[in-house]
Amino acid sequence: MTETQKAELFGVLKRLTEALGHALGPSSEIVLHDFSHPESSIVAIANGHITGRKVGDTLDILGFQMLRQQPPGDLLNYRTTTKDGKVLRSSSIFLRQAAGEIFGSICVNFDISELVSFRDWLNRELQTEEVGVDEHFEHTVDEVLQGLVQAAVGATGKSVPEMTREEKISVIAQLESKGAFLIRYSVDRVAEHLRLSKYTIYNYLDEIKQRASGELTSSGKPPRKLTRF
After folding, report:
1. What is the tens place of the pLDDT at every residue in 149-196?
2. Cα–Cα distances in Å, from 158 out to 33, 161, 162, 190, 196?
């Protein structure tokens, strides 16, 4: 590419830089570099308030590195940070000779600082303590009771007809610990679901209390008393 052709190209790219600055808005900085003058490489810039740079400013550290080790392709969607702490999402598109040598670049720097701050705030707001609480928001007490019964029966790994007496007592005990029997008419509903009479439910509840107090063992019998000699 001749110097005249370069000059014509940079003329078009200067107009493109300004147009992109308007099109992408004030959060996007568009920078046109001419690498033939690295110490004053910026020949056009739109929305320079993002990095505080202006026409006639130098290449940055990455730019000088590109002069020494020219990348095989463009650099897209990488993160950079300004001196005043702005977080940018950047892309650099390189202008090349026919042989591949880089002679300039167009860089787009999009200020994502507010988005990063919003993401961090959102992560904090969504963070919850892992305390093992499995809460559902039912609309009626029938739904609450049904959910408790299904969970207790499901914990046995069996269907109701397959459950042993001890497993049904375990279900009743779990329901009691979850407050199921605080619900009005819950004994009748649980009895129907477990295919028991409500009197059996009451008997199981009494047995559970006696076991908890040590009056009965898990076999339903009084604990064995030791005789002293």
Report:
1. 888 999 999 999 999 999 999 999 999 998 888 888 889 989 988 999
2. 73, 8, 6, 16, 16
Of the two residues 33 and 148, the one the predictor is more confident about is: 33
Q: Nearest Cα to 53, choosing from 115, 113, 112, 107?
A: 107
Fold of 3-113: Beta-Lactamase (3.30.450)
For 1, 10, 56, 176, the CA distances from 37, given in Å and listed in that order, are 17, 13, 9, 82
- DSSP, res 57: P
* 204 touches 172 (CB < 8 A): yes
d(CA 104, CA 34): 5
Give the global pTM: 0.56
Q: No. of H helices and E strands in the chain?
A: 7, 5
